[in-house]
Amino acid sequence: MTHSKLYSAIFAAGITFVLACLMIGIKLDTDGTQLAIKGATTAQWFWILGGIAVVFFSQLFSRQIDGMFSHLPKPQLGKLIPAQAKSDAMKPWLIAGAIVILLVWPFMVSRGSVDLATLTLIYIMLGLGLNIVVGLAGLLDLGFVAFYAVGAYTYALLSLYFGFSFWICLPLSAALAALFGFILGFPVLRLRGDYLAIVTLGFGEIIRILLNNWTDVTGGPSGISGIAKPTLFGLEFTRKVKTEGATTFHSFFDISYSSSYKVIFLYMIAVLLVLFLIYLINRLIRMPIGRAWEALREDEIACRSLGLNRTAIKLSAFTIGASTAGFAGCFFAARQGFISPESFIFIESAIILAIVVLGGMGSQVGVILAAIIMTILPELAREFSEYRMLLFGLLMVVMMRWRPEGLLPMKRPQLELNKQ
User: Fold this and answer.
1) For residues 219 and 213, what is the distance between their CA atoms, to the nearest angstrom?
2) What single-letter DSSP state applies at residue 344?
3) How many domains would you assign to the chain?
């Protein structure tokens, strides 16, 4: 064991100690009208010291740990998929069965479960959009939440000031978010890797600060409340009519009022949006633009040597990915009824990026699986809600060491020559 390993382990443990003390060991609390500094409890110090010890020994014995991880069995999720010929025959039936289950499921579970499923579908939409930019085109985007915010505020402002309905604002939100994605694409045409990530991160913060400071229009930190809910052919899902000349859903069908009708209706809209996006993205992947995205991701120089227009490829990835976030943002504003700049902080971009990486770069099924995991796990462990991001980070570290290609990596068609 070399001295460099020991120094590296001590340095990593020291950094962990400093960060843990700042984030967990010290807390600000109100004592009357003044702020008071409070230390961590004995149990929290125990966990801090345990974490420092884990970091120290993991750095000290990193080579042995790598060897151990390499021998751990990896889940062969790809083997669960049948052979190509059989898969093509079963695919229509599986899709039809999945759609039927999605449509019937909300009538068999509680309202809370349906609401959680709706939130999961929002993150699936966001994951599918970022998967175009990061997974297919290979462009690291840390400001994806900006397009999410643009879609949400487009619907909120058009509904508040002009009385536009959800169904009119849905394509408008996607179009405006796509325009912002197109505008962002120009300054980053020559950038890749860390430089691209820094610029997109700055763009996301610019949008959030703009929404926070443009008080006359966006409401600033107070946000926008009372956002109109979607209607079904003019039928409102409220107890009483809020729009003159409209009719409530329960009175039209002569049934008793239930708040679960609105929750199920929002869930159905989210399902339709996700199905539409999956179909659209699948079509794009099979088109020349989808092949161009993958070529750009694999080797930009080779992509250029083949005569492909890198400018058009990058702009198309940013534009289409941003429009998907605009769809999700519009639906998020309609579901919540209230939005503020605090709903679109950097942590949201980090979570969406974690979904793409965890599921598998470029894999739509993997993104869906990862979005379900990342949304449901925090609900199952609410007692650890304060350490949500810490657990996310630990999960990402484990995945990078154990299965760096993701839960369900993208499968590409391959050709092999027969050995003579």
Assistant:
1) 8
2) G
3) 2
Local structure of 247: helix, strand or coil: strand
Quick check: helix, strand or coil at residue 34? strand
Q: What is the DSSP letter of 225?
A: E
What is the reported pTM?
0.80
Burial of 413 (0-12, 13-18, 19+ CB in 10 A): exposed
CA 282 to centroid of chain Cα atoms: 19
Cβ neighbors of 287 (< 8 A, separation 6 or more) are none
Statement to judge: residues 179 and 39 lie in one domain: no
Cα torsion 389, 207, 319, 137: sign? negative
Residue 161 and residue 45 share a domain: no
How far apart CA 53 and CA 45 sit, in angstroms, is 12
Whether residue 157 is found in the same domain as residue 228: yes
CATH number of residue 357's parent domain: 1.10.3470
Q: How far apart are CA 388 and CA 204, in angstroms?
A: 22
Closest-CA residue to 181 (of 211, 153, 208, 149): 149
Tokens of 6: 């020991």
d(CA 273, CA 271) in angstroms, rounded, equals 5
Please report, as a single letter, which amino acid is at residue 313: I
With pLDDT > 70 as the criterion, what percentage of the chain qualifies?
A: 80
Residue 116: name the closest of 101, 106, 128 by CA.
106
Distance CA 213, CA 341 (A): 10
Q: Map tokens 């900006």 to a residue.
A: 146
Element of type H or E holding 406: none
Quote the CA–CA distance of 362 and 321 in Å, as a whole number: 13
> Does residue 290 lie in a domain region?
yes
User: Which amino acid is located at 280 in the chain?
Assistant: L
Residue 80 counted as domain residue: no
Whether the predicted pLDDT of 122 surpasses 90: yes
CA torsion, ordered 59, 61, 63, 67, to nearest 10 deg: -120
Residue 4: how many CB atoms within 10 A of its CB?
8
Express each pLDDT in 263-294 by its tens digit.
888 898 999 999 999 999 989 888 888 888 88
Domain-located, residue 84: no
Residues in the chain: 420
